[in-house]
Write a structure and sequence with these properties.
The protein is mainly alpha-helical. It contains 18 helices and ten strands.
Length: 484
């Protein structure tokens, strides 16, 4: 029977947590939740460490017992599953995660063990780098470790995928090509006479298909054509109508938003054709950003631009001749953040809304990472807040409603932060041009959110204006009009 020394006092810790009472003050309740979350994160790290150690000792024991090498390791995950009261399949997956935290993702493992990131974020890094060979995986881990404590789960996954794509662009293209070849649709019976039709599609095609359903459903709602149905019901009905060929009005145009550098699009720049990209320019084979999905290989991005059916076929030269709309997104040459525009409108729509979506990428509530539903006035319009980029923030519908509750406040920070007030990650906003909002909750807790750099933005330590290069190059290489 295990004693306290052997278990490290964990039984007392469990008992203490079980008997924990909520604090009397709401500020202290929130502090309890912060500490309990750190404890949960650290516990996940400890489970991974102990699981990995258990596997090593069990394999050693099986070797001593002369278990055939092809069978060594069998039953280890099953024991872990019983101890943790989870399925063996889940235990096997968790054991693979534990191995990775020990061998190749040591930095991520340390952050998890010290409670600085949660298990889902660590799992995301594991999942997005699992295909890399060990040396490259350790390299990506080293690149990510400084940023992970500031990222939510989806942002951590995107950062890991972006770093993995940059570390092995050729492998990423091969894997994406294979995945596209595996596209399929299948049928799953469900209870109560229902079913699921599941499509496994390349990201741009899936985004376009789902976007068309959303847009046409929204149009039907404005005209009252949905006849009392909910939005999901109307979308499901439209999905069936489109597949079965039932007559219906032509769908509204769907825009797939893709962000990539000009040297990624064309493979070179006016000043550096045929040579490696210098500092301040994006890697021609590095990841691009597909709105609604995240980082994708540059080869796929060029195929989207060229409208190539194979999705990976066109070379930069073929993309050179593509007929596509290009919309300028101006970024700060030092920080890479999207810079402001100044239309004065009541509603954030058109160009202003588009810039806010590109700048913020996901909901600006720290760690929320939900898709942007609303371009919201930080300083309320009813209280005199202007309708401009600086006073706008992309948020999810939930936060747009929550911040109107008593005790909540949001403001845009300009200049150095106030003394003694840190952001959600304990750091100040970055130097240079920045868009940082500060959220205060009813308990008095404050959290900060700084807009991320524009996806695939090229930054320059010299601060030279990149727009002249972009405009001159696109004018020279593409016979396109600038979309308004």
């Amino acid at each position: 029977m295990a004693n306290e020394e052997q278990t490290g006092g964990l039984d007392q810790l469990v008992q203490g947590v079980a008997e924990l009472l909520s604090a009397a003050d709401d500020f202290d309740k929130i502090t309890q939740l912060e500490l309990l979350q750190q404890l949960q994160n650290a516990t996940a790290g400890a489970i991974a460490r102990v699981s990995a150690d258990f596997e090593i000792s069990q394999r050693d024991e099986q070797r001593r017992q002369q278990v055939p090498s092809r069978e060594r390791g069998r039953g280890i995950a099953d024991q872990i599953a019983l101890a943790r009261r989870i399925s063996p399949a889940q235990a096997s997956r968790d054991l693979g995660f534990a191995r990775a935290m020990r061998r190749d993702l040591a930095g991520t493992g340390r952050l998890l063990s010290t409670g600085q990131i949660n298990e889902r974020a660590a799992q995301a890094v594991h999942r997005e780098t699992d295909h890399l060979e060990p040396t490259l995986r350790r390299q990506v881990d080293g690149e990510l470790v400084g940023a992970l404590p500031r990222l939510g789960v989806r942002a951590a996954a995107n950062a890991a995928r972006r770093a993995a794509l940059a570390a092995d662009p050729d492998g990423a293209t091969k894997r994406a090509t294979k995945a596209a070849a595996d596209r399929a649709v299948w049928f799953k019976p469900q209870p109560d006479g229902m079913c699921k039709i599941v499509a496994f599609l390349p990201a741009p095609e899936g985004i376009a298909a789902f976007g068309a359903l959303k847009k046409d459903t929204a149009a039907a709602m404005t005209t009252g054509a949905i006849d009392g149905r909910t939005r999901p019901q109307a979308m499901a009905d439209l999905f069936v109508e489109r597949l079965t060929g039932r007559p219906r009005e032509a769908g509204l145009p769907v825009e797939v938003q893709l962000v990539m550098g000009t040297d990624q699009l064309f493979g070179d720049t006016p000043d550096t054709a045929g040579s490696p990209s210098p500092a301040g320019q994006s890697d021609p084979d590095g990841p691009a950003w597909l709105d609604g999905y995240g980082p994708i290989p540059a080869a796929m991005a060029r195929a989207i631009i060229a409208g190539h059916p194979a999705l990976f076929g066109p070379t930069p030269v073929e993309a050179d001749h593509a007929q596509a709309w290009v919309r300028r997104v101006l970024t700060d040459p030092v920080t890479g953040q999207v810079t402001a525009v100044d239309p004065r409108r009541r509603r954030f729509d058109g160009t202003v809304r588009r810039f806010i979506r590109i700048r913020d990428q996901l909901c600006r509530t720290p760690f929320c990472e939900a898709p942007i539903d609303d371009a919201d006035h930080v300083h309320r319009f009813a209280d005199g807040g202007p309708t401009d980029i600086d006073n706008g923030a992309g948020v999810c519908r939930r936060f747009n409603l929550v911040k109107e509750m008593p005790g909540w406040s949001v403001r845009v920070l300009h200049g150095p932060p106030e003394e003694g007030v840190d952001g959600a990650d304990g750091t100040d906003p970055p130097p240079g041009h920045r868009h940082t909002i500060e959220i205060t909750t009813p308990t008095g807790k404050t959290y900060r959110s700084t807009a991320p750099p524009a996806p695939c933005a090229a930054t320059s330590p010299t601060g030279d204006d990149p727009t002249s290069v972009v405009e001159a190059f696109l004018t020279q290489r593409l016979d396109l009009r600038w979309a308004a």
